[in-house]
Amino acid sequence: MALAVAKVNYEIREIELKNKPLAMLQASPKGTVPVLVLADGRVIDESLDIVRWALEQNDPERWLPHDEVTAKTTNDLIATNDGSFKFHLDRMKYANRYDNVEPSEHRSEAVKLLASLEARLSAHAYLFSAAPTLADIAIFPFVRQFAHADVESFGALPFPCLQAWLKQWEASTLFQSIMTKHTIWQPDHAKA
Questions:
Q1: Residue 154 has pLDDT above 80, yes or no
Q2: Of 55, 65, 76, 99, which is the most exposed, with the fewest CB atoms less than 10 Å away?
Q3: Of 3.40.50.920, 3.40.30.10, 3.30.70.360, 3.40.50.12280, which CATH number belongs to 2-60?
């Protein structure tokens, strides 16, 4: 979404994680997605770093924080999302990948963290104000994953503001424009 908003030129190479191309692993040995290879050969292989890079190129919606206090609060909220919330989300959704995990316990812990987002959204249309910010764009995909793991249970939570925020992002022209299917990339089919 940040790449689209920033209007930077990029090429999407859809890959199968079960069949990672050598070119991808050479660019980023971590073997995770996304991977952004810049024209100068630098590689960015963390989602948030890609978002920040794109917005540093062009931030027409003013998503990046513009003062130190907002930057710290934004970074703290994103760190909680990427740390504690993702920890519980992964164990809720993929319990079979971990030893001695009770998905319902992790769901309960994730719900506690979602309550703080509900509190923020009860004061503003977005996490920090009346307009979207970096925090919204960074946290939205994780809330979406949580919601889609069990749509009925998410809908039953006492979080009307969070539910409306999620629906608004999912229905947005921006989100719809990037959620397109791509053909699996094969290195021998790369553009010249």
A1: yes
A2: 99
A3: 3.40.30.10
